Amino acid sequence: MTSKLYIIQGFTYMLVHREYTHSYPAKFLVFRDRVIAENWTKPIQTGLVTLENWESHTKNPLITKVFREMKWVEELGSGRKNIQKYAPLYYDKAEIKIQNEEKFVFSITYRNPKDFELDNEESQHQAGTKSAPSWHQVGTKLGLSRHQVEFLLTFCLSERSIVELAEKMELSDRSKFRKKYINPLLDEGLLTMTVPDKPNSPLQKYYTTEQGKSLICPEESNKK
Predict the structure, then answer these.
(1) 3-17, 29-43, 174-188 — which is least confidently predicted?
(2) Which of 79, 122, 147, 190 has the most CB atoms around its CB within 10 Å?
(3) Using H for helix, E for strand and C for coil, what is the string for the chain?
(4) How far apart are CA 31 and CA 201, in angstroms?
């Protein structure tokens, strides 16, 4: 089993169950500890939905037929069975949340979030003083003012899109904004991407790394 295979299958099922009469974009978000799928829908099953009582319905029969001929999808209800079968193999405490209203949201946690706290502690220990660069080092290397760096890193404590960032900085040219502000912070390891394999993905967002947090919140970093 490979994560790429299941990502491809996830995209395929998103297309099969897509509500094409609505403009809401289907989303398949992959994080380090969980996967979230969002699709607009016209719910047939109401009330609390769990894996145990989840009812499968053919949303787009023509698309389903084509994908089945191509062996891109299996029989009706196979997705639920596969989740129940394989999710515990990734993480024995996998948490699954289903929202079945106008917007269908499916979330599955496949790794313990605390694992990343250990990873961060280990990486900081190995990096030594490099994990907490000084403002003088950063400002000189990036060619940005302390105010600009601190502003962007603080704003990106929550995941932000390039549109949000450019608007916050009151800049209209996103290409120049990315080149001047975002790329240097990425290269320095102060920012990172939610979709690192596809830098130009329309779903791309940026957030402050532990190294970036140590720069704007040194006292919190020292407590750890």
Answers:
(1) 3-17
(2) 190
(3) CCHHHHHHHHHHHHHHCCCCCCCCCCEEEECCCEEEEEEECCCCCCCCCCCCCCCCCCCCHHHHHHHHHCCCCCCCCHHHHHHHHHHHHHCCCCEEEEEECCEEEEEEECCCCHHHHHHHHHHHHHHHHHHCCCHHHHHHHHCCCHHHHHHHHHHCCCCECHHHHHHHCCCCCHHHHHHHHHHHHHHCCCEEECCCCCCCCCCCCEEECHHHHHHHCHHHHHHC
(4) 14
Query: Quick one: average pLDDT of 198-203?
Result: 88
The rounded distance, in Å, linking the Cα atoms of 202 and 192 is: 16
Beta-bridge partners for 4: none
Tokens standing for residue 4: 């790429």
To the nearest 10 degrees (0 to 180), the angle between helices 61-69 and 3-16 is 150
Q: Is the torsion defined by CA of 154, 158, 164, 166 positive or negative?
A: positive
Q: Give the Cβ contact number of residue 93 at 10 Å.
A: 10
How many Cα atoms occupy the beta-carbon half-sphere of 47 within 13 Å? 5
| Triad 17, 30, 203: Cα angle to 5° | 80
Higher-confidence position of 52 and 133: 52
Place of tokens 């897509």: 18
